[in-house]
Amino acid sequence: MWPRKQEEIGRNRNSGFVGFMDRKSADMALKEMDGFILLGYEMKVCWGKYVPIPPKPIFENGNVTKKPSTGFPFSATIPTEVQSSHLGMITASDKLDNYSQTPEVHVIIPHDIRIKKLIHRTVEYVIRYGSKFEELLMAKELGSQRWKLYSLLNGDQLDSWKTEMFYMFSEGPIWIPPPLPYSDNIGEEHSESSEEEENEKMEMEKNKLGRVATGRLCKRLRKLDMTRGSIARTMVFAIERAEASDQIAEIITKYKFDSTTDKKSMIARLYLVSDILNNSSAPVSNAWKLRQSFEKKLEAFFEVFVTSYREIDARLKAEQFRRSVLTVLAIWESLLVFPTEFISKLALGFFQNHLDV
């Protein structure tokens, strides 16, 4: 909260910033609180700048009950949903005859910086003092602490790790690492020269983007616009690194991309995806993998477009946005990029007149 300095205190006013998990809640708060009298002062509320949204809210209004113990180590749970291997669609497990009964541990990075520092310090001590020290902590161990230790001991970096599901030990639960964090400044410390990236690649696991390459891709996405050159350069960058297709698709469809993103930037991102898909048949090593990798991500990617479309108040702007998206899907259908059924599913949200499925 402000003011912080004595000079600001003399102005006899306070100010602060509040973040919400979705735009609808923020809009409701703005309408309810703007002009509200609090302790004799009239509140003035307006929109602030965009901030990254965490996986879970730091504060929830109302009583939040603690989840009961699952009975498995590290609070592992039996999955209630399974992933379709073809379309990336989520299907309820009770509708399937055979589905996984293996417990899963979903690792969540704590938002509290004190807890995060405690985990890092604990991992340092376990590495330094060995199994005897670890045994003393087992009774109170956090899942994120165990995963971080395992991750570092298997060659991952403090701020970069493998995101694939894995078994930590035989007949144990499946561990699901958290997604990689991408900060606003990632890539700024690296030059456009490929020498630094090539040196890192020699030490990296095959089929993975290193920190330098990831930073360079994120930097391109931050500067991406509707110009042909901007989209083409980023497309070529992705095609040339197609061996890391899953990671490329993950970054392009999620990095700094949600329903609050500028509409022109959203369309530019869609044009980029389309350009990559149209060139995935190029005679470049592993380029064909990009189509498979993007297919797994497109359903969630287009849900963001649908949400953004429904939040546009002006009918003309909403229709222009809708036509831009549907034009791309029509091109995909004419070029047989994906099956017609899959493309129709992506387009469905634009034909429902703001009604839920």
From TrEMBL:
Record's keyword terms, sorted: RNA-binding
Family annotation (PROSITE patterns): CID, SURP
Keyword RNA-binding belongs to the record: yes
Transmembrane portions of the chain: none
GO molecular function: RNA binding
Organism: Smittium angustum
Coiled-coil regions listed in the entry: none
Chain ranges of the CID domain: 209-354
Signal sequence interval, chain numbering: none
Domain SURP motif: 118-162
Annotated InterPro entries: CID_dom, ENTH_VHS, Nucleotide-bd_a/b_plait_sf, RBD_domain_sf, SR-CTD_assoc_factor, Surp, SWAP/Surp_sf
Organismal lineage: Eukaryota, Fungi, Fungi incertae sedis, Zoopagomycota, Kickxellomycotina
Residue span of region Disordered: 185-204
Designated name of the protein: CID domain-containing protein
GO biological process, one term: RNA processing
Keyword RNA-binding among UniProt keywords: yes
GO cellular component terms given for this protein: nucleus
One of the Pfam families matching this protein, by short name: Surp
